Amino acid sequence: FFDAFSIIKKVKPSIIVSSGGFVSVPVCLAGKIFKKPIYLHEQTATVGLANKVVGKFAKKIFVSFNNSAKYFPKGKSIHSGNIIKKEIFNKNILPNTDKEIIELFVTNKELPFIYISGGSLGSHSINRKILDNIQTLLRKYRILLQTGENEIFKDFQKGIEIKNSLPSSLKERFVVKKYIDINTIGYVLNNMNLFIGRSGANTVYEIGVLKKNALFIPIPWVTHNEQYLNAKVLKDLGIADILEEKYLEDSNLEEEIERFEEQLKLRNIDKEKLDQLFPTNAIYFVLDSILKEYLKD
């Protein structure tokens, strides 16, 4: 707290904008002492203790998901949506788009294209499940698996080894990457038929913005069951389903995908509601709202 106090005293900011986390609490408390206007942006569908504390004295709270407003004092919250990367809207091939992924997409186009990701760090449990069942899945799907880089389990290396052992007809349906770079992520998200993986706030929001279908496997050990509640936002809207981690190992992934595909045929998705719940101008909305209030005061 004393470090934060000293910094605020020295820098003399006009406005403090917080996106949460425990490290933000002493900064915001120091700002309150110096009578600085504090604004909060809540990214997730649930709210941690840090943001609940800061929310009590924040001037205004911007929420990514409507249902997180209930955790804050009445009248303070406004639905802004989440701040998203402009690159997710790049649906076409760019000069630096990954050539191997392009080849995966343009080949065997009669097969659905599934993008699987355990988040930026990857997920060993998801990687293992996919790799253990890859031949069965590749009979019906093209698969892009983003493993992350893990020096303990070496899932990326195992994925490459398994790919190289496949018959050529299946090998061309499978691509393994440690990461999907910024020049390629828009191409992947816009052209995939299904996402399978973790449900961090940014991932869920991007899926909602692009109106894509997802089978989420939330991390069960995060605070306040955050990833499950993020995923539930899209499940309740009908474009996603949830496979809990505790059922992953014993699940038949092919059957889970097929069951979800059949459910989607019966659902009437309200795309206008998706547009309302997942606005794409959050950065401009938040800055405009803050600056208007600041200049007015």
Automatic annotation (TrEMBL):
InterPro entries: Glyco_trans_28_C, GlycoTrans_28_N. Residues 114-263 form the Glycosyl transferase family 28 C-terminal domain. Residues 2-62 form the Glycosyltransferase family 28 N-terminal domain. GO terms for molecular function: hexosyltransferase activity. Keywords: Glycosyltransferase, Transferase. One of its GO terms (biological process) is carbohydrate derivative biosynthetic process. The keyword Electron transport does not apply. The keyword Phosphoprotein does not apply. PANTHER family: GLYCOSYLTRANSFERASE, UDP-N-ACETYLGLUCOSAMINE--N-ACETYLMURAMYL-(PENTAPEPTIDE) PYROPHOSPHORYL-UNDECAPRENOL N-ACETYLGLUCOSAMINE TRANSFERASE 1. This is UDP-N-acetylglucosamine--N-acetylmuramyl-(Pentapeptide) pyrophosphoryl-undecaprenol N-acetylglucosamine transferase. It comes from Candidatus Dojkabacteria bacterium.
